[in-house]
Task: inverse folding
């Protein structure tokens, strides 16, 4: 059993608190009329898709965390790099904590156990020195020595800074405020809803020994991750939306990759379409 994640007696993680608070406060500048432009909206929408769908959902989650399909190594690295742009920590930490979550989902040892409340599972678990962080190396032996993963783990913030400089060169401060800060806030909370909302709202299709739910609006925001009960029941499956009405855009992306020969050994749940 991993170390406890009881909220009492855990010291505040001030670096994370300051980091998250700063990003949220700067994102408010997007509401100033002087920082608005349709170009900034467009670049934000594109980077949101590239970060949340291609990076986090397709790369960090379905490919690396669960190995539900395989890609050429160069494509895996590209997807991981896109996930790094989410600035939710490096890929090694993200994958390790996610694997720990699945091992102990909604039980003692789950880093964001939903039994501790919506706030805790949504973001509170990151604002303390969570003991689960110490167990990440045990769950990431397949990637922790890969030089590319190590680079992204160490330099995910400088990578974001470089992106910000490119956006400033291209479109000025409005592109930076919208394309970096507002986009990060959107990606943060949409990703966190998978930890919080889908363990509270929605319906259960399968027994999963936790509180995971299928939540349509989270699925819409996260390109298919909201079919969370399906995912917890069949963690290895590349497809999360198992019924025809459970739209899963990430699964469609995987099928597109397979069409071009870029995805193989795709694992699927034993459920009839």
Result:
């Amino acid at each position: 059993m991993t170390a406890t994640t009881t909220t009492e007696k855990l010291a505040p993680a001030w670096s994370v608190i300051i980091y998250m608070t700063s990003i949220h406060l700067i994102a408010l500048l997007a509401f100033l009329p002087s920082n608005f432009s349709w170009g900034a909206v467009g670049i934000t929408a594109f980077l949101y898709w590239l970060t949340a769908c291609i990076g986090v959902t397709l790369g960090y989650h379905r490919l690396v965390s669960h190995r539900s399909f395989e890609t050429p190594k160069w494509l895996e690295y590209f997807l991981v790099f896109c996930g790094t742009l989410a600035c939710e920590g490096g890929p090694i930490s993200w994958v390790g904590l996610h694997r720990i979550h699945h091992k102990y989902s909604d039980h003692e040892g789950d880093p964001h156990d939903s039994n501790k409340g919506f706030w805790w599972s949504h973001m509170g678990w990151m604002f303390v020195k969570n003991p689960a962080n110490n167990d990440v190396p045990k769950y990431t032996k397949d990637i922790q020595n890969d030089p590319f993963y190590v680079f992204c783990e160490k330099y995910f913030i400088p990578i974001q800074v470089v992106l910000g400089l490119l956006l400033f060169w291209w479109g000025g401060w409005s592109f930076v405020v919208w394309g970096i800060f507002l986009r990060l806030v959107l990606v943060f909370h949409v990703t966190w809803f998978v930890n919080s909302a889908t363990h509270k709202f929605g319906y259960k299709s399968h027994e999963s020994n936790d509180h995971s739910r299928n939540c349509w609006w989270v699925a819409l925001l996260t390109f298919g991750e909201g079919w969370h009960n399906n995912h917890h029941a069949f963690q290895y499956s590349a497809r999360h939306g198992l019924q025809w009405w459970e739209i899963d855009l990430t699964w469609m992306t995987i099928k597109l990759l397979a069409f071009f020969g870029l995805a193989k050994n795709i694992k699927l749940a034993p459920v009839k379409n």
Q: What stands out?
A: Confidence is low (pLDDT under 50) at residues 1-7.
